[in-house]
Amino acid sequence: MPKQIIHTDQAPEAIGPYSQAVRVGDTVYLSGQIPLDPATMTLAEGDMEAQIRRVLDNLQAVARAAGGDLGDIVKLNIFLTDLAHFALVNELMQAYFTEPYPARAAIGVASLPKGAQVEMDAVMALDG
């Protein structure tokens, strides 16, 4: 199956040699998003809630550019530099996702690009 590269100006430009997302058939692989403001390419200002919301907004923008939405995500990976924010991630996910929720992993990491505290990537399944 041919690959379709997904790009939107509503999410941050790639900061390396990768695409924002790649669609193969009905499956879309969304690259990791950190809390970069797409307009300024700087980390979102504010507390951890603001950073998590920025990441989810970025994922949503890429999902929409691919013809889907957050509700089409079937697998979500969350990377946190401090797992103490796990409960906040759970709380905010309920504002962005509805049941049935995607399969998910939350992983504690030592560091993330540009000093971010949170990153998320996803796999999305589309109908046709």
Number of alpha- plus pi-helical segments: 2
Structural class by SSE content: alpha+beta
- Proportion in β-strands: 25-35%
Characterize the overall form.
Answer: globular
Gyration radius over CA:
14 Å
CATH superfamily: RutC-like
Strand order of the largest sheet: 1-2-3-6-4-5
For the sheet with most strands, the description reads: 6 strands, mixed
Provide tags for this entry.
alpha+beta; 60s Ribosomal Protein L30, Chain: A; 128 residues; 23% helix
Report on the structure:
Helix 1 (48-65) packs across helix 2 (86-96). By secondary structure, the protein is of the alpha+beta class. A six-stranded mixed beta sheet has the order 1-2-3-6-4-5, with helices on one face. The protein has a single domain, classed as 60s Ribosomal Protein L30, Chain: A. It has two helices and six strands, in the order E-E-E-H-E-H-E-E. Strand 2 (21-24) and strand 3 (27-33) form a beta hairpin.
Topology:
Elements: E1 3-6, E2 21-24, E3 27-33, H1 48-65, E4 73-80, H2 86-96, E5 103-108, E6 118-125
Helix pairs in contact: 1-2
